Amino acid sequence: MNILFAASEAVPFASSGGLGDVIGSLPKAIAEVGHSCAVVIPLYKSISAEVRDEMEFVASITVDVSWRKQYCGIYKVKRNGIVYYFIDNEYYFDRDGMYGFYDDCERFVFFCRAVLEMLKYIGFMPDIISCNDWQTALIPVYYKLYYRYQQGYDKIKTTFTIHNIEYQGRYGMEVLDELMGIPRYNAGILEYDGYINMLKGAIETTDKIIAVSPQYAKELLDQWYAHGLDRILTSKRYKMIGILNGIDENMYNPEEDSDIVCNYSKGDISGKQMCKKSLLNELNLTDGDEPVIGIVTRMVKHKGIDLIRCVFEQILNMDVKFAVLGSGERIYEEFFIEMSRRYPDRVSVTTEFNSVLARKIYAGSDMFLMPSMSEPCGLAQLIAMRYGTIPIVRETGGLRDTVRDNGGVNGNGFTFQTFNADDMLDAVRRAKCDYDNKEKWQDLVRRAMLCDYSWKASAGLYIGMFENLIEE
Known about the structure:
By secondary structure, the protein is of the alpha/beta class. The protein has two domains: 261 residues, Rossmann fold, CATH 3.40.50.2000; 182 residues, Glycogen Phosphorylase B (Rossmann fold). It has 19 helices and 18 strands. The protein has a nine-stranded mixed sheet. Strands 15-14-13-16-17-18 form a six-stranded parallel sheet, with helices on both faces. A three-stranded antiparallel sheet has the order 8-10-9. Helix 1 packs across helix 19, helix 5 crosses helix 7 and helix 12 packs across helix 17. The longest helix has 17 residues. The two termini are 14 Å apart. The mean pLDDT is 95.
């Protein structure tokens, strides 16, 4: 099979979170079993000069953005058996940052159209185009309206993966003809509740809808989780599937990670104690045997930060320390900064993205707190377990699919069900109780590290789904 992954970001070139990690690792896992995979992303300003020096020029074309004709450069780089294509247009992508601009709608309308147009020039005609999140949602729409009957395009199937339904590409009706170049008689494909909704258009037109965990696929049919799209998703549930994300176990490997002070493995976890000691020293926290709770997160509401705020000092009274890394809404950043000022020997807060420090927190913490209000899949809890750090999570989305409470058989973490601060506090209390039993805790750490959340199993599910689509 030939599979083209279209996304707005991909590790190692440009990434702001889980989407970039997935697009950086899933194609490699599929290619390892003999399929041809390629990835296409925008050529952002942030992509390094070293990468640009490696790029090979493919073609220069024009792309229709409604009544406009815009320049599009196509470049490529090959890494680990995967060809990465880059869509170049300095007006749209030569900016500081990837998202959050006044013309994001126009920028990604251009990108979607460019992805389909470039297929005529790159010598790679996909059997499947895997689209991801709202920035690529118009690809299945444009394919159905304008490309499926063109020579060479007729056998392509499209899939659309929802990594986070909160972001939908929602705009006023005027963008339909002004930016998208879609006639009014096709407005029903994209119109939803009086607005243009790009995610809705993909849900209508794609051949398969993928949620990034089985539990998230169920939750998306619930209005509490679906951010208004539960009606359309319920009507299209026949073509919906949940496949759990994985992590690149070569990228996150405590046996070989050069960013941590001492490597260790599930067979010999003694080096983890050295990582903890080093982390405490680096963060100016007092040395000692008390458990360290790590938090690596975006500081936004749906990550459950409000629960932490409610009982933070009660958790501290259990005789624990916190290593917090993340940025986001000012109210949450200021809360953690205030806590670090009050308890400088027990609370460390870093309000920036620092991938090296993140690895040190994963390796040096004893527990990892992730009380999300919603979590499509979550990669942080998978990385934490890979490093032998025990997750404390709310049972939602992928957290429910991957973390089993230690109160049961073969647990690998601690869970709570309701979005309630006292329930979270109880889960932390149970974790602290088990931590104080050193033999029991060491068994739990090994059990967590034995969990296999690599891409191997999930890639097999993707391959089976893709093959079934091609045969239909």
